[in-house]
Design a protein that fits this description.
With 589 residues, the chain is of the alpha+beta class. Helices cover 35% and strands 22% of the residues. Bound molecules: adenosine-5'-triphosphate and magnesium ion.
Length: 589
C-alpha cells in the first residue's frame, strides 16, 4: 500500500464534524438555522440528556422532496448557493452543505420531511455513513431531524462532552440566541419531557423581554439608526443594569449571532465612559448591511464575520450607541417591554438637550399622542413615565423641585410623578465631568487665581513633574508653581474645583502626568484624569445645600448629557412614583 492514500468518506466526514459539530449545542444551532432557511414559522425542539441522547427539531418549513432527501445528507450538497457569486452575497444561514453530513457521521440521524406537493412524508436514516432508502412516513409539511447518541462512534470526542446539565445549558443559550433573532417565528424547547420555553410569534420588544426578563426591558433604551447601507437597531441597557459577565450581550449581523471584534470594540467604547471597567454592558443589537459587504465564510461554526469596511462599521456602531446612551437625567428609561402596540418614541429620545420647559411640553404631547404614560410595571423602577394620575401636574420640570436634603447625601424632590431621590455627589460629579470634557475639548477651562496660593510640601519628583508640565497644567486650568525643590504652590485652579481640595487634586493630576506623560494623560487617559478631577470637585456628603442650590443642581442634571449615571455607572437618581407610594401604604385597596 502506498504511504499516501485517500481517507474513507465516513472518516472525512467525522474529521469535518469535529469542526462543525463541537457539542450538542452546535448541532442544535445548525438544525435551527436549517429550519429558518426553510421558511418555518413554528419550530419545536426536544432534547434528552442535555441533547447528547436525543436532539429533535421539527419545523413547518417548505420540506424536502423525496429525491432530494439522500442529497441533503451528503457533503457539499446544498440548495442554497450555486456559484462563487452566490457565496459572496449569502442571505441564508447555511451555504456549505456540510451540517447534516457532519451530523450523520457522528450520530444516528433520521430525517423525515414532506413538501406541499407530497401526499405523505418520506424518511431516511443514516448511521456510520450508511444511508437508508427513502421510506414513506407520516409527516405534515415541514421537516423533522432527529439525532441520537451524539459521538457514539467517536468515543474520544464523546469524552470531551460535559455533564448533561452543562450541555443543556449550552443548548438553551443557542436556542435563546436564535429565538431572539426571529420574534416572527414561534419556538418551543423541551428537555427530558419538561417544557422550558414556549415562545409565540411576538413583537421584538416582547420577545426580548421574554428572554432577558422585564428588568432588562425597563433598563434599556431603544437604538435605531440607518444610513444608506447600514441599519443598527435593538435595545441597549443603561449602566445600572450592567453585569459581571458578558452573558447578556447579543449582537447579530444580518440575523446571525456573532462574536465580532470590530463591533465588540465599538460597543465597549460606547459604554466606556459610563460603565465601571469591571462591569459588562447588556444589549440585543441587530446590524443589517448588504450581504456583499460582509464575509460570513470565515469560521467553521460561522460565528465570526469579516466586514469589508471595518472602520465605517466601527464608527457607525460607536456613534449610534453613544448617542442612544447619552440621555440626560431628564430622559426616562424603559424601552423593551410588553407593550405590543407601536407608539411614538418617548420624547426624551428625540429631544436630547431640550430645556426643562420644552421637555415637559414634549412629554405632554407624547402622552396625548399615546393616550397613556409608561406601562404599569408592578415594580418600583426608576422611570420618568409612570402612569398618569389625577395628581399629575405638568408644571414640574422633569426632576421636580427640591423639598429637603436627607442624611447629607440625598436630595428629595417632588416632581410630576411623585418623589425623585437624587444622590447629590454622584449627580454633581457627573455634571462636573461632562462640563470638564466639553471645556477641555474647546480649550476653555475657566481658571480662577487663588487670593492666597495654597502651598504644601511635595516630593522632588512631584516638583519636577510640575516644572516639566506647565503647558499641560495650563490647559487643565491649573497654575502649580515650584517654590523650592520640596515645595509647591497652587496659584490658580479651574473655577469648577473647590479650593479646599487644591492639594489633593494637585497631587492626583501630577501623578497622572508623571505616570502617563502629558500627551497620553490628555488624550487616551483624558477621561480617567477628568473623572478624578470631577470627583474632587463634586459636593461631598454631609455638605449642606440650600433649597436654591439643590434646585440649581437638579436643573443642571436635566441639561447635561448622561447624568442618569455617575462616572462609575451607578444611577444618580431614583423615581418613587405616587402609585408606588400608594401601593406601599395600600391606599385605594
Ligand atoms: N429543515 C429543513 N427544511 C428544508 N430543507 C432542509 C432542512 N434542513 C436541511 N435542508 C436541505 O438540506 C440541505 C443540506 O443541509 P445542510 O445543513 O447540510 O447544508 P446547508 O444548510 O445548505 O449548509 P450549511 O452546512 O452551511 O448548513 C440544505 O441545503 C437544504 O436544502
Ligand atoms: Mg444548514
Amino acid at each position: 500500500m502506498p504511504a499516501i492514500h485517500l481517507l474513507p468518506d465516513l472518516l472525512i466526514n467525522q474529521i469535518a464534524a469535529g469542526e462543525v459539530i463541537e457539542r450538542p449545542a452546535s448541532a442544535l444551532k445548525e438544525l435551527l438555522e436549517n429550519s429558518l432557511d426553510a421558511g418555518a414559522s413554528d419550530i419545536a425542539v426536544q432534547l434528552e440528556g442535555g441533547g447528547i441522547k436525543l436532539l429533535r427539531v421539527r419545523d413547518n418549513g417548505k420540506g424536502i422532496a423525496r429525491d432530494d432527501l439522500p442529497l441533503a445528507l451528503m457533503r457539499h450538497a446544498t440548495s442554497k448557493i450555486a456559484s462563487l457569486d452566490d457565496l459572496q452575497r449569502v442571505a441564508s444561514m447555511g451555504f456549505r452543505g456540510e451540517a447534516l453530513a457532519s451530523m450523520a457521521a457522528v450520530a444516528q440521524l433520521s430525517l423525515s420531511s414532506s413538501t406541499a406537493l407530497d401526499a405523505h412524508g418520506w424518511k431516511v436514516e443514516a448511521r456510520d455513513g450508511q444511508m437508508s432508502e427513502p421510506a414513506p412516513t407520516s409527516h405534515a409539511q415541514g421537516s423533522t431531524v432527529e439525532l441520537r447518541e451524539l459521538y457514539f462512534n467517536t468515543p474520544a470526542r464523546r469524552k470531551f462532552l460535559k455533564s448533561e446539565a452543562t450541555e443543556f445549558a449550552h443548548c438553551e443559550e443557542t436556542f435563546k440566541r436564535i429565538a431572539l433573532s426571529r420574534p416572527d417565528v414561534a419556538f418551543s424547547l423541551q428537555h427530558n419531557g419538561r417544557t422550558v420555553w414556549q415562545l409565540p410569534v411576538q413583537p421584538p420588544a416582547e420577545r426580548i423581554a421574554a428572554i432577558l426578563g422585564e428588568e432588562f426591558g425597563h433598563a434599556a433604551v431603544s437604538v435605531e439608526r440607518q444610513t444608506a447601507n447600514l441599519l443598527l437597531q435593538g435595545f441597549a441597557a443603561l449602566p445600572a443594569y450592567s453585569r459581571s459577565t458578558r452573558d447578556a450581550q447579543y449582537f447579530f449581523v444580518n440575523g446571525r449571532f456573532v462574536r465580532d471584534k470590530v463591533a465588540g470594540h465599538a460597543l465597549r467604547q460606547a459604554y466606556q465612559d459610563i460603565l465601571h471597567h469591571q462591569r459588562h454592558p447588556a444589549f440585543v443589537l441587530f446590524l443589517d448591511l448588504p450581504p456583499e459587504q460582509v464575509d460570513v465564510n470565515v469560521h467553521p461554526a460561522k460565528s465570526e464575520v469579516r466586514f469589508r469596511e471595518n472602520q465605517g462599521v466601527h464608527q457607525f456602531i460607536f456613534h449610534t450607541l453613544q448617542q442612544a446612551l447619552s440621555i440626560p437625567a431628564s430622559g426616562g428609561q424603559g424601552a423593551a417591554g410588553t407593550d405590543s402596540k407601536p407608539a411614538p418614541a418617548p420624547p426624551q429620545q428625540q429631544h436630547i438637550g431640550l430645556g426643562a420647559a420644552q421637555q415637559a411640553a414634549a412629554y405632554r404631547l407624547w402622552e396625548m399622542q399615546t393616550g397613556k404614560g409608561e406601562r404599569e410595571s408592578g415594580k418600583i423602577t426608576p422611570t420618568l413615565y409612570s402612569p398618569l394620575t389625577t395628581r399629575h401636574s405638568p408644571e414640574f420640570p422633569p426632576l421636580g423641585y427640591a423639598l429637603a436634603q436627607l442624611s447629607g447625601i440625598y436630595i428629595l424632590a417632588q416632581n410630576a410623578h411623585g418623589l425623585a431621590v437624587v444622590d447629590m455627589h454622584a449627580a454633581h460629579e457627573r455634571i462636573v465631568y461632562e462640563k470638564f470634557k466639553a471645556a477641555l475639548d474647546a480649550e476653555r477651562i475657566a481658571t480662577q487665581p487663588l487670593l492666597i496660593p495654597v502651598t504644601f510640601h511635595a516630593e522632588p519628583l512631584d516638583v519636577a513633574t510640575a516644572e516639566a508640565n506647565q503647558q499641560a497644567l495650563d490647559r487643565l486650568g491649573f497654575d502649580i508653581a515650584p517654590l523650592s525643590p520640596t515645595t509647591l504652590a497652587v496659584r490658580a485652579m479651574p473655577v469648577m474645583l473647590r479650593q479646599a481640595e487644591a492639594e489633593t487634586v494637585a497631587f492626583e493630576v501630577l501623578r497622572e502626568l508623571r505616570e502617563y506623560g502629558a500627551s497620553r494623560a490628555l488624550t487616551e487617559r483624558r477621561d480617567e484624569l477628568l473623572a478624578t478631577i470631577a470627583c474632587h470637585a463634586a459636593v461631598r456628603a454631609n455638605h449642606a445645600l440650600s433649597i436654591t442650590e439643590m434646585n440649581a443642581l437638579l436643573r443642571e442634571m436635566e441639561q447635561t448629557e448622561r447624568t442618569g449615571q455617575c462616572n462609575h455607572g451607578r444611577p444618580t437618581w431614583f423615581q418613587l412614583s405616587l402609585t408606588d407610594l400608594d401601593k406601599m401604604f395600600m391606599r385605594g385597596k
